[in-house]
What we know:
By secondary structure, the protein is of the alpha/beta class. The protein has helices at 2-9, 13-25, 30-49, 55-80, 101-112, 126-136, 151-163, 181-187, 198-206; strands at residues 88-93, 116-119, 140-144, 171-175, 191-193. 57% of the residues lie in helices and 11% in strands. It is globular, with a radius of gyration of 17 Å. The relative contact order is 0.12.
Amino acid sequence: xxxxxxxxxDMLEDELMDMTDKYLAEGKDPKAILDAYQAGMxxxxxxxxxxxxxVSELILAGEMMNAGGEKIKPYLKGAVGxxxxxxxxxxxxxxxxxxxxxxxxxxxxxELAGYEVKNLGEDVKVETIVSEVKSFNPKLLGLSGLLTLAxxxxxxxxxxxxxxxLRDGVKVLLGGAQVDDHIxxxxxxxxxxxxxxxxxxxxxxxx
Length: 207
Ligand code: B12
C-alpha cells in the first residue's frame, strides 16, 4: 500500500492507475487501497504547504483521487455490508469550501451500505442546509469542510438548527481530514469522521 501512497504523492498517474487495477484484481482490501490514496493526498497537502507543489498539483491530485475512487467503488459494496432502507442522510460541504472529493466518497459508501443519501454539493449556504434538514428529515447530517474557515459555517448550521427546534431530531457529523475533538466541541456536533468508514459504523450503531 505504501506504493499507492507514494505514487499519489509523486503525481505518477499512470503507475497509480495500473497499480490500483492490479491490486483490485488481486483481491486486496479496497478500504486499505482507499486509505492509501488518502495518505497520498495528505502528503500532497504537506508538499503544497511546504511550497514544493502549487494549486495545479492540488487539482491534478483531485483528478487522480476521483479516477481511483471510481475504480475502487464497485469493490467496496461487499466491504460495507449493504441492505436497503436504513434511513436518510443529508450531506454537504459548507459555504466557502469547495473540497468535495472526500464527501462524495463518504456519500457513495453510505449509499452502498443501504442509506438514502441526498448530496447538496459544495459551498452550500447555512440556510439551505437548515431548510433541507427540515424538508428531507434525515437521521444524520454530514457537514464536510477541509478549510479552517469551514468551522464557523459548520457552527452556524448547528446554532440555526437549535434555533429552529430541529437539532434534537438529527445527528450531526463533521467530515474532513482536519476535524478533531476540539472542532467537534466548538461546532457542537455529535461525531466526526476523518475516514470513509467511521460514518457507516456510527450510522449502523444508531440502529
Ligand atoms: C485536492 C485538494 C484541493 C482541490 C479540491 C478538489 C475537489 N473537488 O475537492 C482544489 C485544487 C480545488 C483545492 C483548492 C484549495 N485548497 Co485544497 N487540498 C486538496 C488536498 C490536497 C486533498 C483533499 C482531498 O481530496 N483529500 C482526499 C479525501 C478522500 O480525503 P478527505 O477530504 O479528508 O475526506 C475523507 C475524510 O475526511 C472523510 N470525510 C470528508 N468529508 C466527509 C463528509 C462526510 C459526511 C463524512 C461521513 C466523511 C467525510 O471521509 C473521506 C474519505 O475517507 C488537501 C490536503 C489534505 N490533506 O486534505 C488540500 C487542502 C485541504 N487545501 C488547502 C488549501 C489552502 C486550498 C486553497 C485555499 C488553495 C488556493 N490557494 O486556492 C483552495 C481552496 C478553495 C476553496 N474555497 O475551497 C489546505 C487547507 C488549509 C486550511 N487549514 O485551511 C489543504 C489542507 C492543503 C494544505 N496542507 O495546505 N484543494
